[in-house]
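Handout, page 2. Input:
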Amino acid sequence: MPVPSLSVDKVRRFQDPDAFSFETTAELPTSSHIIGQPRGTRAIEFGIGIENQGYNIYVLGNTGTGRTTAIERFLQELTRGRLTPEDWIYVHNFTTPHQPRAIELPPGEGAVFQERMERLIANLRVDLPEAFDTDAYRDTIEAVHQAFEDQRAELLRDLQHKTAAAGLALLKTPSGFLVAPVQDGRQLSAADLQQLPVAQRQRLEQQRQTLTDELEGVLHQIHELEQQTRREMKQIDRQVADTAVQHHFENLRALYQGQAEMLLYLEEVRQDVLNQIDDFTPPLDRTEVIDLSRYEVNVIIDNARMSGAPVVVEANPTFHNLFGRLEYEMRSGYLSTHFTNIRGGSLHRANGGYLIMDAQDLVRNSDAWEALKRAIKAQTIQVQPQATMDSGRVLAKSLDPEPIPLAVKIILIGSLGLYYYLHEQDEDFSNLFKVRADFDNSMPRHEEHVKEYALFIASRCHEENLLHFDRAAVARVVEHGSRLAEHQEKLSTLFGAIADLIREASYWAGRNGRTLVTADDVQQALAERIQRANRIEEELLEQILDGSIFIATEGSVVGQVNGLAIIDTGDYSFGQPGRITARTFMGEEGVVHIERETEMSGPIHEKGVLTLTGYMGGTYAQHQPLSLTASLTFEQNYVTIDGDSASCSELYAMLSSLSEIPVRQGIGVTGSVNQRGEVQPIGGVNEKIEGFFRLCRARGLSGEQGVVIPASNADNLMLHEDVVAAVAEGQFHIWTIDHIDEGIELLTGVPAGQRDESGEYPQGTVHQVVQARLFELAKELNKFGDDDDDDDDD
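Output:
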């Protein structure tokens, strides 16, 4: 019984616009939930909810499912009511300057404290000089200084009296005080001393030595008095300064009661100010700029505008982008840094929330990946100093900032292959990423998901200020979703591609002068997309039409079948007909595929060829040897091929060659066959059908042309409207088959044949003719061997 072609309602599933309750998407709200991924969504909710260490999340699935954007919005919505994490600041460490201190503050308080410290230093610059510019201060300092001068003068006066009584004098020279012999008010020279009697000279020298020793004691007393005076004056300065700054620090301490770290830091600042008063009251003749940067505040994490937990997407997860960096400055030919040069990374911004990254990009940066694992295990963020620098210069100084506690949930987005690789090769991965969130490429096309498609369209229009869609346009997008999913009962979850279609349709609607996107605009967007990418397809079609590539679409030919392949140009795939031919003859080499012999085929295609041998043996060699050589090839093919979707075509060509029954050239064939002759599903069925249809249409549709596909691919049909129209008019046909025998009858018009009770095929059937030809080849091969033996005997 002939196989009927599919009716028009089977080759594409349309979406009824009247099924929607809205007129345009402007009536619909925006939506942030993840569409059609219940398994993945549940896994993410579990990973977010469990607080134990190591329950970070790996989201796997194909690129284009919109995982990153969908998860970001989903998390933002889910975590909106959660507590906003603390701010973090770095400040100078007055005890160990190369180890800046990290201090935690309530959300938004980091910038507030930074401003308060700036205001404090500005006030001190004014108040401290004013405190020392008073008569009371000057009188007090003068009194202390005068008391020192009086005591100094008295000590020197007493010593001077003693030297005079001894006939000596206390003289002040440029190098200091000394005791020397004098006469009549004149210091005696060495010559003068030699003129004196020996006894007198010895007495003067002895008295000079004694008084010189006493002079040293007096000078020591004066030095001690001077030090004491300086301490008194410094203490007065400190008391004056303390009085001037006290109310400023009291006000700040009152604001941070109960925050021990802040109170400790403020006390350290106060003590440093009192110890470095000259930095605020410089002499009038000082020209250098006083560096007060040690009092600055470096806000690393500022959550002032944050509501809920942060959700951060790091598009370039390098080491410094994750962990921050120390920036360096050139000073006197050396690079140096300062705690104000510490810059935070995405881990700092996401701390207390969620950090989303592409797994492939992260693993590719091995330093960042290893450091991230260490940070997760240690639960701290450490800003690492730069280890090396350009031009071979040596760093003048570096920093070792205090680590900040890390409490973040890491969400990696990657492929299934990378997930398996990390599980196998990285011993830390399974302990640190215990939650697997699996995203599928498609979802069932039921009413709820169709509505969610409409909500997705509405969300893109609202958020990106696109033209809104009418019901028919939404229906057209839904149909394209099934086309992307390659299934009438499913919708694609590649929302990146759907979003692009929405944007492009809005653009063309605007170009067409419309205020709403219609179904025609969606169709134009799809057509324009194809037109931008199908140059190679059109060139190949031209080569077929001008006879450069041999493809017949009419008549019948022995041993020749139109196979259908897919050509992928990156952003566009299309179906390409190709002539498959078979020649069979006497021999014992079996099925020989030229592409296989010339190493132009992949392993899956080689498997398909070997399967043909299994089919031939199982079908025809149960009671006779399978003695033949069959040569198969893809004519005019000069590139590597793979896949087994041409195995049905190859088998038909070989059976036609053996039986010498011609095959209809107006029919294209695709499908994979197993050893039992069952036809198995293949991929790209829509593109393959459309590729053959375009060729037939270009030459003129006869009403006899069409494509044979596996019956299991019937649900994958979402054919282009022009193919659907041709099917409706009976100008083009789609046949579905479950077994190779059905295809034999379609292609040849001759029954395939079923074995009777005796195991024989009916006369005139294809299988009977093939069986007879194989028996004849076996006999001829055997006879040829016998003839060779006879010749040898002669």
